[in-house]
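testing teh design pipeline on a random one, pls ignore if ur not involved
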């Protein structure tokens, strides 16, 4: 089994243990995933690499932004997206698939959390740590 498939299965088991649902369904071409009310949906027929990226991204939303169905604690949709992209960049970098510096969430300074509010940095780091633990990765912090 490829490393990517192994990581996807590890996160699927984590999602199930935490009481959320994960399904694959037809979504618009521009949408790789979405999350609502404890249900993560990934677009059917993504490549394994795209699926892992989408799963990490949507899991980041579910873990960091599930304060209520209306996301009342998330300052804005844009901030929530930046946070999820930063989590995605950190986790994928930790897995060795995508260097953080090459990810769109990274600015000129080179670190995914640069430019985020301090409260966002805390959410990003905590969420990244949680996902890495679900993947069985040792943490160096």
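output:
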């Amino acid at each position: 089994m490829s490393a990517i498939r192994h990581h996807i299965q590890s996160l699927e088991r984590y999602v199930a243990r935490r009481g959320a649902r994960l399904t694959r369904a037809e979504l618009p071409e521009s949408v790789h995933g979405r999350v609502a009310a404890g249900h993560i949906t990934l677009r059917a027929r993504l490549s394994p690499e795209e699926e892992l990226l989408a799963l990490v991204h949507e899991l980041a939303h579910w873990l960091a932004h599930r304060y209520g169905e209306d996301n009342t604690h998330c300052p804005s949709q844009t901030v929530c997206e930046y946070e999820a992209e930063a989590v995605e960049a950190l986790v994928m970098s930790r897995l060795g698939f995508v260097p953080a510096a090459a990810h769109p969430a990274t600015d000129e300074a080179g670190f995914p959390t640069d430019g985020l509010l301090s409260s966002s940095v805390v959410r990003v780091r905590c969420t990244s740590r949680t996902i890495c633990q679900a993947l069985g990765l040792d943490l160096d912090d």
